[in-house]
TrEMBL record:
Gene3D superfamilies reported in the protein's UniProt record: Ribonuclease Inhibitor
Functional note: Substrate recognition component of a SCF (SKP1-CUL1-F-box protein) E3 ubiquitin-protein ligase complex. During mitosis, it mediates the ubiquitination and subsequent proteasomal degradation of AURKA, causing mitotic arrest. It also regulates mitochondrial function by mediating the ubiquitination and proteasomal degradation of the apoptosis inhibitor BIRC5.
Gene name of the record: Fbxl7
Annotated pathway: Protein modification; protein ubiquitination
SUPFAM superfamilies listed in its UniProt record: F-box domain, RNI-like
Protein name in UniProt: F-box/LRR-repeat protein 7
Record family assignment: Belongs to the FBXL7 family.
Organism phylogeny: Eukaryota, Metazoa, Chordata, Craniata, Vertebrata
Length: 449
């Protein structure tokens, strides 16, 4: 009853956002499993400020000794805000219900730079509308402090929710909507057009998103100043199955500042799409085209144009890539630190040799399920890549214990070794453990533990 008396039309009850039978709403009180954040996270629960004086009969019976224990009220506001910044989301919202002073402090804009909503049953569109309206009280119609919105896995998110973000959050820098498959290109276009500072965009699993571009109105308006460019540097389009070469061409032409691009399982991408990408996006440091089955050695020739800027490359399960493609990467991308070539069955010891001799600063390598790689390839790695920390050889049929011993004797900093489903002896595993004391070995040999 006391909660009902506090509700107003301008501050809806939590039940409008969390259904009563959902995990986020129990016994009329909000609960959340979100982790804490120094900058604060926003939960979809908004309450009106509690009354200054509590008049419940049981509260009036509190002893004088109990009242004297509230020493926290003596702290200045800036100290309270600092304490609140370490609280998890649900606790911060509960603090807003203690008293009027705590309500004002808990809604300090500095604590609400991030909105984080998770869960399949949450009415995300309504939640975003309520939260942005509350955060816009001091600055009508805009949330100047809000920089991050994370609504991953919220399947009820629609274009309406993204429109709310686009219209109210001009200072947005990071948006993650992974797994929200109901959003379309139009809503994404609005966000990138109305949020000029957006640098991080995650639309992985959004199967309806086929490209990233400015709206026509924004393109006409901003072209004299921005040249139709978008400031996104990090873009994750994993599992955007409908993305094609033409869409990748549009993305490349608008997002020329990209440094991190992930196209995992974008199965319609071909070498032609990578050619478009390399024409416009010359600053890419991390690129993943794993499980893009149409990418071949010609695509590797295009990627090699990134030269020393490329540090991370994933081509896992790209069955058309052979030693020829690896040779392009090894010749031009000498500062490569991470390579995932798992499942590229066309790679042999010759490809590993090119890689080891030219990319000597390699720290992580996955050549699992490459049956043509043998101990000879491992010897080239051991004699050239002394900084190797992670090595996966899972299901490499030609690897033996002798090759592992050569690696262990030269790569003392090895921290992870995966030899699952490899025919290696217990003595070889013990040799690795003896020489690489910090190495975690993943294996399937029941005799070694």
């Amino acid at each position: 009853d006391s909660d009902l008396s506090m509700r107003t039309l301008s501050t809806p009850s939590p039940a409008l956002i969390f259904p009563p039978n959902s995990p986020g709403f129990q016994n009329g009180r909000g609960s959340s499993t979100s982790s804490s954040s120094v900058t604060g996270e926003t939960v979809a629960m908004v309450h009106s400020p509690p009354p200054t004086r509590l008049t419940h009969p049981l509260i009036r019976l509190a002893s004088k000794h109990q009242k004297e224990q509230a020493n926290i009220d003596r702290l200045p506001d800036h100290s309270m805000v600092q304490i609140f910044s370490f609280l998890p989301t649900n606790q911060l919202c509960r603090c807003a219900r203690v008293c009027r002073r705590w309500y004002n402090l808990a809604w300090d804009p500095r604590l609400w730079r991030t909105i984080r909503l998770t869960g399949e049953t949450i009415n995300v569109d309504r939640a975003l509308k309520v939260l942005t309206r509350r955060l816009c009280q001091d600055t009508p119609n805009v949330c100047l402090m809000l920089e991050t919105v994370i609504v991953s896995g919220c399947r009820r998110l629609t274009d309406r929710g993204l429109y709310t973000i686009a219209q109210c959050c001009p200072e947005l820098r990071r948006l993650e909507v992974s797994g929200c498959y109901n959003i379309s290109n139009e809503a994404v276009f609005d966000v990138v057009s109305l949020c000029p500072n957006l640098e991080h965009l995650d639309v992985s699993g959004c199967s309806k998103v086929t490209c990233i571009s400015l709206t026509r109105e924004a393109s006409i308006k901003l072209s004299p100043l921005h040249g139709k460019q978008i400031s996104i540097r990090y873009l994750d389009m994993t599992d955007c199955f409908v993305l094609e070469d033409e869409g990748l061409h549009t993305i490349a032409a608008h997002c020329t500042q990209l440094t991190h691009l992930y196209l995992r399982r974008c199965v319609r991408i071909t070498d032609e799409g990578l050619r478009y990408l390399m024409i416009y996006c010359t600053s890419i440091k991390e690129l993943s085209v794993s499980d893009c089955r149409f990418v071949s050695d010609f695509g590797m020739r295009e990627i090699a144009k990134l030269e020393s800027r490329l540090r991370y490359l994933s081509i896992a399960h790209c069955g058309r890539i052979t030693d020829v493609g690896i040779r392009y990467i090894a010749k031009y991308c000498s500062k490569l630190r991470y390579l995932n070539a798992r499942g590229c069955e066309g790679i042999t010891d010759h490809g590993v040799e090119y890689l080891a001799k030219n990319c000597t600063k390699l720290k992580s390598l996955d050549i699992g399920k490459c049956p043509l790689v043998s101990d000879t390839g491992l010897e080239f790695l051991a004699l050239n890549c002394f900084n190797l920390k992670r090595l996966s050889l899972k299901s490499c049929e030609s690897i033996t214990g002798q090759g592992l011993q050569i690696v262990a004797a030269n790569c003392f900093d090895l921290q992870m070794l995966n030899v699952q489903d490899c025919d290696v002896s217990v003595d070889a595993l013990r040799f690795v453990k003896r020489h690489c004391k910090r190495c975690i070995i993943e294996h399937t040999n029941p005799a070694f533990f």
